[in-house]
Amino acid sequence: MNRTRWIVMSEFMALITVCFVTINVAVAQSYPQKSIRLLVGFPPGGGNDALMRVIAPKLSEALGQQLVIDNRAGAGGNIAAEVTAKSAPDGYTLMMGFSTVLTTNQSLYRNVGFDAIKDFAPIAQLATAQYVLVVHPSLPVKTVSEFVAHAKSKPGSLNYASSGIGTPLHLAAELFKRQAGIDIVHIAYKGGGPASTALLGGEAQLMFGSVPSSMPHVKSGRLRAIAVTGLKRSVLAPESPTIDESGFPGFNVTAWGSLLAPAGTPRNVIRRLNEETVRVVRFPEMRQPINNTGYEPTGTTPEQLAEFIRTESAVWAKVIKDANIRAE
How do strand 224-228 and strand 93-98 relate by DSSP bridges? Predict the structure, then answer.
């Protein structure tokens, strides 16, 4: 009797498994059947929003349904992330996830309302953007090694500007400061514009700035570019070496945008979204529009994005803890 019951139960479970797989395949084949809400955690018009607005029309075309961008600005992107994490995992709510939201905010803020690793299903990284180390031209340095030597000869005398406490520009400088073993003083401003103005006026001597906003000042001679922060040279500043190749192997700080869904979204839906997203960002005709936003197109697997989020989170958690940084 027990054996008969076991056989019946095994057959029942096998039937359930087949039904589950069949339903998932059917969902993926018919997905999407309606418009998709795409949450962006920053206001319209900024660089992060601009990247998604370049990609969204082509992705809508590829999926055959409209992607409706929903800007939920506030709390450094945490509001949009929390809304996404608590949404139904049906493929009809997605999030444009940025590096800060996914890798630094949980160390900077006490309560973010989501877990960046557990609450999302990664789809693909879309694009990356580098920063550039720029100095005031009065500083007698032209390379990273010259800058480090100069900073070590005058500990505590050089000021670096940032767009605010806990921002990417601040964290990039803190990571470099620790790896280079130099003592430079942080001055936080309310945004990248005021920070750049302070550097141009000599109030600060250096900063890590965005490539698009910094390079016009470099070309005019008002600032000097020392190096970029990625592992390869930027197509937007090809003459600037990387910090990695300038004596600090492995130094890699980038901003990046990605696409995510709530955890529990069917794997076949994630696969469909990944295939279409990667195909779109790698279209040759998409390269220049994406470059115009300050980014360079990438495209990854869901697994690669998940691992990248874990790795980056660990790096920035240590920097934030060591420097005792808290978001304002």
Answer: unpaired
